[in-house]
Amino acid sequence: MSALRPDRAMIEVEGLHKYFGESHVLRGIDLTIAAGEVVCIIGPSGSGKSTLLRCINHLEIPEKGNIRIDGQLAFRTEKNGIFRSHSNRAISAVRAELGMVFQQFNLFPHLTVMGNIIEAPVHVLRKPREIARKRGRELLAQVGLADKEDAYPEELSGGQQQRVAIARALAMEPKAMLLDEVTSALDPELVAEVLAAMRDLAAQGMTMLIVTHEMNFARQVSSRVIFMDRGVIVEEDSPARIFGAPRERRTRDFLRTVLDR
């Protein structure tokens, strides 16, 4: 697999374990995402895909393992066999380097589109409001919504809201984007516009880790595809290999099921 990974690692996950009560959801995940790489994670529901993204962004706290963002140790480290959290300030500093977009849009309903986009840059990054607005307009144009800056979320379609959510994440100037099934809550006719925005990001060299059920998107855009099941990475390889000649029977069975629908 190493031939698929350039030298500079943007996201490194080592020995990651996560439990929910008695359920062992992540079972020793090791994963490296190179700068500029687009990696799609596929697999059945309940395999731990979304939990992995949430642990990387510290929305869930793993019981064991290390995470590094652009070489910086993040979130939890082992000391004398005991795992401890970093400070909230340290967590916030690393999290600011990651943009995350969820299944649900999570836009502030009382703010306009522009208000949603500039909220964090102004109040977290302390950017001057006019500079944040200028960047916001550039990002709205990038996702095809240049004429919607004064609209409120309720006035937008689901696909438009999700593209605003992508622009909002990009406004924080992240080093990498985490996208968690961002099309799963959309009507089928709205999926294409969101996938087009993600394709544009990939073409611009944004590092992305994407949980998706869109197999054609994963095949066309990914530099690497990961198949997860039951809390482990079963197989990872190029899209051509995963979709054309997977090595593992569990991968073949899953793809046969989803591609035959």
Gyration radius (Cα, Å) is 18 Å
The biggest beta sheet reads: 6 strands, mixed
The pLDDT mean sits at 89
> What global shape is seen?
globular
Helical amount among residues, as a percent range?
Answer: 25-40%
DSSP, total strands: 12
Which structural class matches the secondary elements? alpha/beta
Series of secondary-structure elements, N-terminal to C-terminal: EEEHEEEEHEHHHEHEHEEHH
Residue share in β-strands: 25-35%
Ends apart, CA distance between termini: 30 Å
Number of helices: 9
Q: Unreliable stretches, pLDDT < 50, 5 or more residues?
A: 1-6
In spatial order, strands of the major sheet run: 8-9-10-3-11-12
Summarize the structure.
It contains nine helices and twelve strands. The protein is an alpha/beta fold. Helix 4 (129-142) crosses helix 5.
Task: Please describe the topology of this protein.
Layout: E1 9-20, E2 23-34, E3 38-42, H1 49-56, E4 64-69, E5 72-74, E6 76-79, E7 82-85, H2 88-95, E8 98-101, H3 113-123, H4 129-142, H5 158-170, E9 176-180, H6 188-203, E10 207-211, H7 215-221, E11 224-229, E12 232-237, H8 239-244, H9 249-259
Parallel strand pairs: 3-10, 3-11, 8-9, 9-10
Antiparallel strand pairs: 1-2, 1-4, 4-5, 6-7, 11-12
Care to describe what's here?
The structure is a single chain. The model is unreliable at 1-6 (pLDDT under 50). The chain is globular and about 50 Å long. It has helices at 49-56, 88-95, 113-123, 129-142, 158-170, 188-203, 215-221, 239-244, 249-259; strands spanning 9-20, 23-34, 38-42, 64-69, 72-74, 76-79, 82-85, 98-101, 176-180, 207-211, 224-229, 232-237. Strand 11 (224-229) and strand 12 form a beta hairpin. It has 261 residues and is α/β, with parallel strands linked by helices. It contains nine helices and twelve strands.
